[in-house]
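Kindly inspect both lines:
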Amino acid sequence: MKLSGGWQVVEFYLGRIRRLNPVLKGVIKVNPDALYLDDKADHERKVKAPISFSRLHGIPVLVKDNIATKDKMNTTAGSFALLGSDVPRDAGVVAKLKKAGAIILGKASLSEWSGFRGAPPGWSARGGQGVNPYDSATTTCGSSSGSAISAAANFATVTLGTETDGSILCPSSFNSLVGIKPTVGLTSRAGVVPISPRQDTVGPICRTVSDAAYVLDVIVGIDKNDIATIETSKYIPKGGYAQFLRRDGLKGNELGLKEGAILIDHLEIGNIDEIYNDSSETTTLLSEFKIALNKYLSELVTSPVRSLADVIDFNNKNSKVEEIKEYGQELFLTAEATNGFGKKEKAALANLARQTRNGFKKLMIKYKLDALVATIDLRVYKILAIGGFPGITVPAGYVQKMPFGIFFGGLKGYEPKLIEIAYAFEQATKIRKPPSLKSLQPKKN
């Protein structure tokens, strides 16, 4: 879909959300100023030369509800505990979107606390249970479920999600979408309700590779509120990412297909079983979550909760609310019991570094690969997560009516190659089809 804004486009999306969101539950909150912002963008286009606008000017964007917006909407990570809190500023990526003229249409639903509470994928106390628009009986995957539901159901032109381990790539695959999980630090995490600064990243979830590349061009770059962006900005190519939207992008690239064949056959990550069965990632995430969340909550202008302990207490006191009572908070309790980074956590970090060095990184360098190719069932997103590596998923087909995607993963800064390959694959196959949504349409008299 070609990016274009204005001309009642916001009204169109608001209409779809009103009709379909009561069932799909992909959106938690619509921006009450959306129509005003649309009119403002239309006026700007009438009085200024088109060349002065970015590709995202006037484009409605839904952002995951763990991404802060300094406006009339709450940022709650799907939890009632943060309802009424006041963020100090827009998240870094939101500030960049607004500077480019994009319209923040609303907040997409998610797995509560980005899946770290332990509830089912796509469920939050505020948003309810998100529904896959292709098949209500199939998972949305998590935790950027609402961003994926909304992109698939055409609730916005593009959406933003976040990923710690699979939360962009998995829901994009299950909803027949393009999702880009950027190199950690390529996009700012400032103003994002955190799990792990070591693994968290923000990226686009869209219907096409080109849309995703245009969004990535806008949201990457240095943000003084996230120091990781300073070092990682070295990976941003001069001229941006849209230049790599090449139909011949597969030519000359060395691809390795895990447990299959494209150009280099039967590649194996030597320590794959160790990575999948080891608890080191969980050990580190539990400590990182407590530290990072406490810092985030302490910096809010106003908030009903100021620490993970406060969140746990809130849930206990509100356990009579059915939505809160239904799902426990075992991960919260386990995280709260941690006490910073001791010997166990440091050993776990060392394990993750060793697994990355001796596994995925070694494979990519040994075979001089431009990308590793895999499907969702191989859980490549875990390998990318622990190393901070980028990945992109593209619609690849359907099993009956359920979508599945193909993943391309690379080393840090490999986004240009991944976009080039993914776009060429997309253009060669053109396999994506929208969900029918017929059962969700209002009945005619």
